[in-house]
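Exam prep: given the inputs below (a chain plus protoporphyrin IX containing FE), describe the expected output before reading on.
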Amino acid sequence: MTIEILLRYVHFISIFTIVGALVSEHLLLKKSLSRSEVGRLAKIDGVYGLAVLVLLAVGLTLWLGAYGKPTEFYSSNPLFHTKLTLFIVIGILSIYPTVFFIKNKNGDQEENIKVPNIIFWMVRLELLLLFVIPILAGLMAKGIGITE
Ligand code: HEM
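Solution:
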């Protein structure tokens, strides 16, 4: 019981960290950024990446591990697979902004860099999907959607 509670706790804390990092990126993004501002975004993006890895590890343990509900409870629920798919889509959307931040943070820190529009839209889409997942999680946790 205790390990399951701990896993759920870390599951939520990593979600809060991901939301906090993505909202910060969205607020700090501007059409033109100095390299030092890009460096700050790269650091926030690093925290985001770490939280995603922790969330995935804990999520997989809650799903496949011997804690809480049996693995089949989730594997037989399309809502769970939709949740995982949205999580993977968020991961794919996060690649280009991460590469942009890493590629543009070094050099003259006062130099201004133009931020491609698509970076704004990728961060916004990540946030949108992130706000959809909890409804799927709540439904799947109650067993709604399970197909016999
Ligand atoms: C951004 C991504 C994610 C969000 C926002 C999220 C959200 C949630 C929420 C809100 C719950 C609690 C549901 C409830 O008790 O009503 C939950 C539980 C859970 N999540 Fe996630 N989750 C995410 C990613 C993942 C991933 C990647 C996995 C698996 C690889 C996963 C597996 C689970 C499992 C197994 C539970 C336990 C559900 C239960 O109590 O039956 N989650 N998640």
